Amino acid sequence: MKSVNRRDFLKLSGTSLIGLTLGGVALRANAQDLPQLELDDATAKALKYTHKSEVEGAVCDNCMYIQGTEGAEWRPCALFPGKSVNAQGWCTAYVKKPG
After folding, report:
1. Does residue 91 sit within a domain?
2. 86 vs 2, which has greater pLDDT?
3. What is the reported pLDDT for 22?
4. 23 in a structural domain
5. What are phi and psi for residue 84, nearest 5 degrees?
6. What is the pLDDT of residues 32-85, one digit of tens each?
7. In a domain, 37, yes or no
8. Number of domains in the chain
9. How many CB atoms within 10 Å of residue 26?
10. β-strands 74-76, 84-86 pairing
11. Backbone Cα Rg of the chain
12. Residue 49 forms part of a structural domain
């Protein structure tokens, strides 16, 4: 398992807190109304977001942070308020939905 240094941990913690706090705003918006998350976005870079997951079985679509209509290609994410992520994407904050 890869160890996380303090700086990366603080980035992830801060981003998660902001995302969870403001994520409700993204939930109310339709994903098609939100801009797609760009790979050069600072938060996307910090969380190593990619539009296409290379981790078997781990995609945004089955992550606990994804929001919006199930089955949509682009959906809001609590970690990236005001942006939509690809349902087949992935980032280092990925946590599988329970159940």
Report:
1. no
2. 86
3. 55
4. yes
5. -110, 150
6. 689 999 999 999 999 999 999 999 999 999 999 999 999 999 999 999 999 999
7. yes
8. 1
9. 22
10. antiparallel
11. 13
12. yes
